[in-house]
């Protein structure tokens, strides 16, 4: 696989939906071993009153439920914004081997910008990180969201 545009389109639609509930607009999808979307998530911290309701965590939970197993070692996580420390830990826990990112998070990103948890030699696992897929579009969604709140 290598054309991530379709999966990122779905993640972008989820990000836009998150903004409608006043959540930071981040969307995530998990691509299963056959190339189909098996899990989706969007930020729902405000909607659910749950500090762990990040797009990535919700997408990983949905994918694990769809496959009936917690090991997602044959899946790919596609997300509009670089994962934070919690989400980077969650994708490591799920054994995700590949991460596709739209925009970098220069403030709290944990997969290559501020930290690089998913490729830390002390952890042992190495996640392939593919960044910049529709990055300008993903960043613009976030910029618009935060500008509207200033």
Strand content: 15-25%
Poorly predicted segments = none
Strand order of the largest sheet: 2-1-3-4-5
What string gives the helices and strands in order?
Answer: HEEHHEHEEH
User: How would you sum up the global shape?
Assistant: globular
Count of individual beta strands? 5
What structural class do you assign from the helix and strand content?
alpha/beta
Assembly type = single chain
Please give the largest β-sheet.
5 strands, mixed
| Terminal-residue CA separation | 40 Å
Number of alpha- plus pi-helical segments: 5
Radius of gyration: 14 Å
How would you describe this protein?
By secondary structure, the chain is of the alpha/beta class. It has a five-stranded mixed β-sheet. Helix 4 links the parallel strand 3 and strand 4. Helix 1 packs parallel to helix 5. The protein is built from five helices and five strands; from the N terminus they run H-E-E-H-H-E-H-E-E-H. 41% of the residues are buried. It is globular. The N and C termini lie far apart (40 Å).
Please provide a brief summary of the model.
The protein is of the alpha/beta class and 150 residues long.
Descriptive key words:
5 helices; five-stranded mixed sheet; alpha/beta; 150 residues; globular; 17% strand; 5 strands; 37% helix
């Amino acid at each position: 696989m290598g054309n991530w545009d379709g999966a990122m389109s779905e993640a972008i639609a989820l990000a836009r939906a998150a903004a409608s509930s006043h959540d930071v607009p981040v969307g995530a999808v998990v691509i299963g071993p056959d190339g189909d979307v098996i899990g989706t998530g969007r930020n729902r911290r405000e909607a659910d009153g749950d500090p762990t309701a990040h797009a990535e965590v919700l997408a990983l939970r949905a994918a694990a439920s769809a496959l009936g197993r917690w090991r997602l070692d044959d899946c790919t996580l596609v997300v509009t914004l670089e994962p934070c420390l919690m989400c980077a830990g969650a994708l490591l826990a799920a054994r995700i081997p590949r991460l596709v990112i739209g925009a970098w998070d220069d403030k709290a990103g944990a997969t290559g910008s501020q930290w690089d948890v998913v490729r830390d030699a002390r952890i042992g696992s190495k996640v392939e990180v593919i960044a910049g897929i529709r990055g300008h579009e993903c960043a613009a969604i976030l910029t618009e969201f935060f500008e509207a709140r200033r």
